[in-house]
Amino acid sequence: MKTKLLLAFSAILVALTFLLDPVSQDPGYHRFADVRVILGIANFWNVVSNLPFLIVGGVGLWFLRTKKRRGIIHDLYPAYLIFFGGVLLTGLGSSWFHLEPDNSTLVWDRLPMTIAFMALLTVIIGEHVCEKSAGRLLGPLLLVGASSVLYWHYTESIGVGDLRAYAIVQFLPMILIPIILLAYPSRFSAQKIYWGMILLYALSKILEYFDYAIYETGTILSGHSIKHVVAAAAPALLLYGIKKRQLPAN
Length: 250
Description:
The protein is mainly alpha-helical. The chain is built from ten helices and no strands.
């Protein structure tokens, strides 16, 4: 019954989103507070602050290839692997975008993020709701995530930008994940890591919103640069949890 209600809730949110008029990308999104050129690198801090994504993604991929990965559901190994791969690619894509911010580079920032979002949603479904269903959902969810970015990019290229599908892919998991955590028991004894990830993601969005305000206080980094570091701490927290949790809860 809970699963049917969750599916119905998701379907209603998707339907309501597409009842809205198409939303194009705001050109102001590409105007960041810190545009300093350092060591010949444009927008230096917004570029290099993506390094934590590369580190966490790389370490996560390396750890999953070892035999110490006791804190995962082994049938969902591809989902964990794709998640950390998406984190690593997010660091590369975001760095590329911030070197020359516009819609053509933004697609390479958003594409790996949707990969990570969809893989994480699959993991949480597998750990809390149904392992077999999660395994079947991984491919379709990744396809939906990638398609949402490519659809937005195409609509922008023909002058009728539409962010609705991408908005669903980015924000619907952030609504569903807390509901799943509250409604379904974890396969593992510890689930605080996911609440920590949610808080870090929320904080990163706040920092992104106050990019200019934070930079104008005279700090070394702008809100957006700090956002990258905070956002990268979320997958780092998951990696820490995977390394520490040992046995499924009884």
